[in-house]
Amino acid sequence: MASGDPLEQTLLHLAPALARARQPWWVIASGAVKLHTGSDMPIGDLDLLLARADVEAVFAALGLAVTPGGSDGLFRSAVFARYAGAPLPVELFAEFELCRDGQWQAIVPQSRRLLRWGRGEAYVPEADELAAILRRFGRDKDLARAELLSPSDRSPSRSGNA
């Protein structure tokens, strides 16, 4: 992988700030799918779920103000910020929730796996848990991403080589 890869460069750029985190953190959504699958799927941004206790330290390291999050009706978070100082835009949030049937449900991954992309690295939920989270989101793009994580899509027989 070329050293100019935006995902690799973004992960390398974020590493010093994320080293300040004392609680688990995760890349989720399309970035996590790409890390799991190695897919050439484009990602528009990197979604970074932090523990509320780490927000101040991580945000300070990135020069971000700690501001309240909001809701779009489907998702909400207690804290939210966009960071544009890396090759990929980064969305950082804490106390992330999903609204299903009028009820807000916390999204807190239970698994945590370190994956590398070139010289960069990030923690992500295990593939099966990430797929379940994406299916809970329910949007077409998230359902398609969940399919990329299914074992049948990752087997060599699906590539046409068998």
Can you tell me about this structure?
The chain is of the alpha+beta class and 162 residues long. It has a single domain, classed as Beta Polymerase, domain 2. The chain has helices at 6-18, 29-37, 55-62, 127-137, 140-148, 151-154, and strands spanning 26-28, 46-50, 75-83, 90-100, 103-106, 113-117, 120-124. Strands 1, 2, 3, 4 and 5 form a 5-stranded mixed β-sheet that branches. Helix 1 crosses helix 3 and helix 2 (29-37) packs parallel to helix 5 (140-148). The longest helix has 13 residues, at 6-18. The relative contact order is 0.19.
Radius of gyration, in Å, reads: 16 Å
Q: How many individual β-strands?
A: 7
Query: Number of domains in the coordinates?
Result: 1
Poorly predicted tracts of residues: 153-162
Summarize the structure.
This protein is an alpha+beta fold.
How would you describe this structure in keywords?
single chain; 162 residues; alpha+beta; Beta Polymerase, domain 2; five-stranded mixed β-sheet; two-stranded antiparallel ribbon; 6 helices; globular; disordered C terminus
